[in-house]
Structure formats: structure tokens, C-alpha cells
Amino acid sequence: MNILCAGLNHQNTPIEVREKFAVGGHEMQATLDAVRGIDGLTGAVILSTCNRVEFYAASVCPVRAFDGLRGLMQERTGVEAPLYFHDTPRSVRHLFRVVSGLDSMVLGETEILGQVKKAYTAAAEFGATTAHLNRLFQQAFRVAKHVRTETQITRGATSVGSVAVELAGKIFGELSDRRVMILGAGETSERTARSLVSRGVKTVIVSNRTFDRAAKLAEEIGGLAIHFDNWQNAFADTDILICSTSAPHAIITREKLIPMMKDRAGRPLFIIDLAVPRDVEAAVNDLEGVYLYDIDSLEGIVRQSLEVRRSEILRCEEMISDHVGSFVTWMRNHRENRRGG
Amino acid sequence: MDRLLLIAATLCFVASFGYTLYALGAGRFRPGRVNLVAILAGFLFQSAFLYLRGQAEGSCPLNSLYDVLIFLSWALVLIYLLVGPAYRLSLLGAFTSPLAFLLVLTALIAPLDHSVKVRPVLNPWIETHAALSIIAYGAFGLACVAGIMYLLQERQLKAHKASSLLYNLPPINHLAAAIARLVGLGCLLLTISFAAGFISQMPVNSMKFLTSAAIWLVYGLIFALHRFRNLAPRRLAELSIVVFALVLLTLPGIQYLSSRP
Residue A52's domain spans which residues? Predict the structure, then answer.
């Protein structure tokens, strides 16, 4: 028995082509049935995400099964399927790399593990898996856990929004009782605020020179709009301040902030300054209890995280090699036991 | 035998701290496993030592500076084991182990009188007073450890450094809350200890009384300032470190005065 992997992903196929091959949840069962009808193929799991469409199958004759799979995909989409193809042990290594986030667009991202689990569960529910595939995917989940816990491949955040959320967590702990104020309803500040809202911040106050725009954003993210002239009145209760106005000079200076901090009863203030030119004077970071991050420092942390992740690739690959070895050994023993039996 | 137990405890604390340094450096630190086991083992060795020492001395083993240092190290770990997991501040253990190690190491290698001082128990309130005082100091010691962690984490955040420490240290808000609660716990234990001392009606050296009262007052003031005057978390952290360092410096003096009523 061989493990076959065929597919296309963000590295070799543009989205215009990938989207044609995507397999939605509603067509999963029919597609699995069609795949299992291919000569020489005994079981299959289909992984379809925004970055990849991959088929993992158990087959006694992988080359013939691959041809059948390619033909099926071509027939289904009407275009030539630019599929890559791996058989054991490369197919096993590929799955282990995918599930560990090493093959993802954002190195080390963890969402892929949930997507692989979902794909496997769907295939198992439709009766499309075999003993080999069951064993392969169970081991893949163990590999993902092992790689994540033993290396720093998932360490740090890789976008400005997620860095902001992570830093807020390192200052406040839980974010559920926190209040966010947005000064300047820009696109980046909106994305950052959404990241914080997804982590459960309590209240979002939006203030913009154009009140209508503030009201619109407040409505979209479930917040409250206030007039720009009044933002200082709501400041005392704010824990996280996101600034992205188009003011040509700093609107928050050290001198302005010192008296405002006195009303905060020692509560820390996290300021995320996304504006260029900056809205907040750099010296504000020297004030006690104030943590100021501008766009450069946030992007600097993103770069540091990616560097750390990249430096861990070799260690991850070594771990994966060990797991591939143990899976291939299991396959061999399984085959010999069946022959012996 | 008792010295071997102490050496074993010391090795456990060193192992815990060494592992943390290595794991943090390699980015493999995961709170709550190796550290907890090593600290727990060290605590058990210390407990066995104190039990044997108490049996030999016929009283709570607080009859020399040697005893006091080991009891303080034991109390520090005891408070960590009680409150550490509750605050999910598992790295607290990693920072506690070097302090516990230093206290035991000082007891082992400093030129202190290691001999067994037999002292029959005349009044159980005196034993309660002495033991609770040192356990209270253990809480202050742990507040000091949390204070160090607070300053480290604050430094990481201010400097915009995404280091391994930033990701593994707890949020500064949690650390500030932990310091305040530990100082509060220490004050409470010290108050009960003083009450036990008054009930025992033991003769007290006035200098020792004044020093102990000053420590109690300073910690009480820190706690009150935090609770009622919004003492800034950074000040709270700094004070918890400085005052505990002073407590450690006065410890030999207090012990000396305790033996001279």
C-alpha cells in the first residue's frame, strides 16, 4: 500500500486557478465518492482551504491513481489540473509539513491544523478513510502538537493586528473588561480594533474628525461614536488607545498626557499609534504605566517573530523526518503482519 | 543525614533554575512541568530536614540563623506552592528557585553555627509566633520575586522587545495583583504572629521588637498605599524588592537579638 498526495497550493498555483478546484463542504461527499471510484484507490481525504486543495489517498498503484485523479479534476473543472504529486514517503512528509504550518503562506500558522482535522473528520464520517489513512492522520496530529510544543515555530504574532492583541494580553491579561478607543477611523485601526474585539474587549469608542465616519465604523464593530472634540472626556476609562488620524503633528504629547494619567488610578495605558506622521509623541513611552507602540515597532515585532519562526525550520524538519521514519516503519510492519497473517 | 537532605534540596532548586534558563534560551520553556517537580522535590527534602531538625532540637527549628535561613527558604517555596498555580504564574517558580537556592546555600556554606540547639517547648504560642513570622517573610520573599518579574516584563514592553521572556512572563497586571496579594498575605500572617507573641507574654528584646514592628509597619504602609492611594504598580514592585532586601539584611540582627531577651 502507498500513500499518495496530489494537489495544488499557493506556491505553485494562482488563486484564479485554485478557486476552480476548491471543494466546498456541500460537494465533499460526492467528490470523495468520485475519487474513491478511481481504479486502484482505496480511500481518500480531501483538504480544501483558501491556500490549497490536496488529495491524500491510499493506493496500491499511485501513478495510475494519480492519473485517474488528474482526469477527474480536469473533467470537473474543465481546465488542465496543474497538480503536484508525491508518493510514500514524500507524501507523508508533505502532510506532516502542512499540518505543522511549514507549508503555509504564513510560516507556522496554526489554523491549518483545524482545517486538516476537519477534512479528516469529514472523510471518516463519509466512510472514505482506510486503516493507513487513519493512522497517517492521527500521526500527523501528533506531529503538529510535537512541533508546536518543542519549537518556536508558532511563536509571536505575524500581523500588526495580532501583535497588538498579543501585547495587550501581556499588559492586561484577559481583555474582556478592557475599553478601546479609536482616534481616526482608518482601515488599519479598524482591522486592529476588530482583532481586539475578537478577543473580547468590552467597549470600543470611535472618534473621528468626520463624525459620520466614526458612527459608521462604530456601528460596524459594535462600538460607540463620539465627537472628536470630546475624546479626552472618555479617556480616563480607556485601556487601549488606537490612533490613526491624519493630523500633521502629534495630537498626544507628554505634557498633555501627564495630567490625564493622574485620573487613571495607576491603570496601565496601551497606545497603538498607526498614524504617519505619528499622532503620539515618542516621549510618552517614558511615562509610567504607558506603553506606546508605533507602526514601526509593531512591524519590528512581526519581523522578529518571523525570524524566530524561520530559524526553527531546520529543527521542525528534523522532527518531521523522525515521524516520517516511524510511520514508514509502521507501514512496513503492517504489510508484513498482513502477509504473515 | 540532615545535611544530605539539604544538599539534595539545593540541587533540586539549582536544577529547576538551570532548566529554566536553558529552556528559555532554547525557546522550549513550558511552565508547570520540570520546574514544579524539581521545586516540589526540593520542598520535600527541606521538609524532611526541618522535621529531623525539629525532633533533634525539641522545638520548632528556629534556634539559630542557620535554622532561620532554611526555614525561610522552605516558607518561600511553601507560599509559592500554595499561591503560584492559583495565579497561573508558573514562571514564578523558576524565579523562586534561585532565591530558595541562595538562602539554603548561604546556610550551608556561610560560617554559621550549625550545631543542634535543644530548646524545650515552654509555650506553644511562642512557636506559633516564630513560625508564622518566617512564613510571613516567605510571602514577602515571593512578593519580591514577583516584583523582579514585573520589572523585567515592564522593561520588555517598554523596549519593544519580542524576546522569549516577554512571551513567557505573565501579564504585568497579573504580576501587580500578585505582589499586592502576597504583601497583604504577609501582613496578615505577621499580624497573627505578633498577636501570638503578645499572648505568649514572652520577654522581648526591645531592639528586636522595634525592628520587627518597623518591618510590619512598612509592609502595612505599602499595602495601604496600594489599596487606598493607588500606589503605581511599578512602585509596588520596586518597594517589594527593596524592603525584602532590607529584611534579609536585618535577619541576622533579629536572630541575634532573639537569643538575648
Answer: 2-153+312-340
